[in-house]
Amino acid sequence: SLSCYEIVELPNDLFIKLKLLRFLDLSQTRIEKLPDSICVLYNLETLLLSDCDYLEELPLQMEKLINLRHLDISNTRRLKMPLHLSKLKSLQVLMGAKFLLGSLRMEDLGEVHNLYGSLSVLELQNVVDSREAVKAKMREKNHIDRLYLEWSGSSSADNSQTERDILDELRPHKNIKVVKITGYRGTNFPNWLADPLFLKLVKLSLRNCKNCYSLPALGQLPFLKFLSIRGMHGIREVTEEFYGSWSSKKPFNCLEKLKFKDMPEWKQWHILGSGEFPILEKLMIKNCPELSLETVPIQLSSLKSFEVVSSPMVGVVFDDAQLEGMKQIEELHISDCNSLTSFPLSILPTTLK
């Protein structure tokens, strides 16, 4: 194991005399590329490359590692998914896979059945229609627990319904725990994002989906703990639809952290008034210049951190009762909120740190 060593480069002939090596850990090193001689390690079974921030490419003849069973490339931000990894016939576990569409096709993703941990699918603007998206066979990948979907570039979609259909076919298996969607070009989201059958989904991030004018019914995700909504330029209102329809449980009944950021057109946040956000601990509203908010639509009693920054129209009036209701508040951060009319500094909660 060479994990965590300050290694930048390995000698090209390093592995020629190590042909019996079965385990190699280069995780958390500063290595930029692997020497070609690694391809002579015919007995290598495990190769760990996670958190190699500077690793950009793998050797072209990786398929010669005929006994490689476990490959971990998680959190290798610069590494592009090589075409030949699908030729590793003995590979049983591939962790942290990253598929860059354009150089790879949806069929290539569909043919890989040994994906574990995180999966990133990038450059989704290159997918033409839902018939192409279905070839990824996303619902069959039951060992993926973190899914990152990203559209790049500033080009707008020709057909919003086509974009929605593509995202609909990228629905993950019900075992998913984390979903992050960046740059989606449709005007609304498919229904699966708010499906209560996602019993393991705890973290959801929607970022720079600038054409969307409404949010899914995320309140009905039963075990969602962390929600981040950022750069949604088309959102003008957060309506009752956001909370979903519940028969017995309160909307967002498990949510602990909620973040809204960079929402230039957001003006209204509708309050449902049915005990939503019962255990919310952290609320952040940042850079939402048009949001007019006089009451906070959450349970203040559980709140530990409340942050409102660069949102000049937010005029929340904290009266004595509200502050007294903040029984667990530890952090209260308010800045650049010019519409704030009063704040009773004399009775600040003693829990503040």
UniProtKB/TrEMBL annotation:
InterPro entries: LRR_dom_sf, LRR_R13L1-DRL21. It comes from the Eukaryota. Residues 106-232 form the R13L1/DRL21-like LRR repeat region domain. SUPFAM superfamilies: L domain-like. Signal peptide: none annotated. This is Putative late blight resistance protein. It comes from Solanum stoloniferum.
